[in-house]
Amino acid sequence: MDSDPRRRLISSAVALLADEGVEAVTLRRIARAAGVSHGAPLRHFTGRAELLSAVASEGFAELAEAELPSRGARARLLAACRSYVEFAQRNPAMFELMFRHDLIDTAELDQAVFARFTKLVTDAQAAGWRAGTDPRALAASLWAALHGLAELWLWGGLADRDLLMTLDLTLSAYLD
Fold it and tell me: DNA-binding region spans which residues (predicted)?
């Protein structure tokens, strides 16, 4: 177990989130899981929102660390798109938390993800893909499509098989 109490609280919250979902991640439950007093989280965080924001930061970091091919701007963009949806499948509760702006404050992290995604789009455009389109608008449109697919899957609107088929069709519509 981590000796840093702040780190231990975050780790416990990440585990609780993965096991039981967003609504289960209360300060009291996190404290119990971390083996500390119920007041301990408030000695290390200003409240639930700050602690959940730290938890969501872990998810954004994992998403940013997705391995992309070293060659081919289009291949990197395609891999990033797939990675985004696959992350939602592997980490449904974390994915939900990362975009729950009613619970967390991660605007800077959202902007960093969008900036990285826009860079991938710009690189693909430099290689000839949709060169005349505003890269920020194109990135926003593609991100919205990917996020919508992930959310539909999370809420039961798409089965696993349908998600993968729809993802392939979406990427084909955008990237071909």
Answer: 26-45
